[in-house]
Amino acid sequence: MRRFKAQRRPDDEDNLEDLPDDTATLLSMLTVASIVVDAQDEVVRSSPDAYRLGVVQDDAIAIDEVMRAVHEVRAAGGRRMFDLTTSTPERFISMPSEAAASTGVVETASVRRPNWLKVTVGRINERFVVVLIDDVSDAVRFGQVRDSFITNVSEQLLGPTEALVVLADNLERGGADEERIARDARQVRDSCEKLNHMVADLLLLIKAQEPVTPSSANRLDLLEQVRHVADQLRPQAVAAGVGLHVDGDEGVIVNGEVDQIRTAITKLVENAIGYSPQGKSVSVAVSRAKTGDHAMVRVLDQGRGIAKEDQSRVFERFYRGTEQTSRTENGVGLGLAIVKHVALTHHGDVAVWSVPGSGSTFTLSLPLAR
């Protein structure tokens, strides 16, 4: 990606004096991000979101396609409209967690996702060109989840449907022994339970696309939420022969939607229990980041760890790793995707540290309450 930046001229401070007042007022009222470029290709005005979306860097247009459109409009007038996909610059992505900093091991963060933009470029006057950026990423992601919902539910319906056909055939023919009928019935039940589980997770995933706005009404004590989840999952841990321990700082407050936060923590702890051998333990800890602006929930297990080739993909929807246990083999691969989207909608992050044979640590990072 090439970056465009002209040399600053002595009168750059006066650049905006030639921008019509009504145009400046209109730009300030727009809900989309805007950029104003002068005749020397210098960015003289830009919305903060234009930097976050990767279109402007160091006060210059950073995307070749956008700069070409600016040149075309300046020369020929009219307007140019096109779709653009960008990546969020590194400085706008959460820093690696303290665990990574202390061990020197690189973690896999989940928030490196594309931004889908609709760009409009037009000429204001002979001197200025405006670039308008409409971030439609939420709509695109919601559409992707919806399509995944339809596709995967359709596929999963085949399991219980086929099992029901087998059971119906055996009953219709008669003469089938009770043991065979019971086996077929169990297959129907297992297929239906898996389908129900997948539909429930997909609905959670769709709900986790909704942005969360911090307010005084959605302040949550994070350790309290972790303790609630642990109480709900303790019978599952006991049945698996896995210890479950909770510890952490009191009074760590975040802004969040309680059901989403609990769901994300639940998925992380369920995952840890599922991959932990009998006799091992899972630890959940709440703390404040040393930077002072984030809270962290760390879920540590003593399982077999995650293979290196799986670590970069564990947060993808429907991705199933190569190392499954008897307790996880019937999963549908949506749990960590839900955690990822809950983190994103709460302006946070989720990361994994793992070494095969040494267990895994998942870290959910959320901004402290405002």
Short description:
The chain has 370 residues and is of the alpha+beta class. Helices cover 41% and strands 22% of the residues.
What features would you describe in this structure?
The protein is an alpha+beta fold and 370 residues long. The protein has a six-stranded mixed sheet, covered by helices on one side. A hairpin with a 5-residue loop joins strand 12 and strand 13. The two termini are 36 Å apart. It is 41% helix and 22% strand.
What is this structure's SSE topology?
Layout: H1 21-29, E1 33-37, E2 43-46, H2 48-52, E3 56-57, E4 60-61, H3 64-76, E5 79-87, H4 98-103, E6 108-109, E7 114-123, E8 129-135, H5 137-173, H6 178-207, E9 219-221, H7 222-240, E10 243-248, E11 253-255, H8 258-275, E12 281-288, E13 294-300, H9 308-311, H10 335-345, E14 349-354, E15 360-367
Parallel strand pairs: 10-12
Antiparallel strand pairs: 1-2, 1-8, 3-4, 5-7, 6-14, 7-8, 9-11, 12-13, 13-15, 14-15
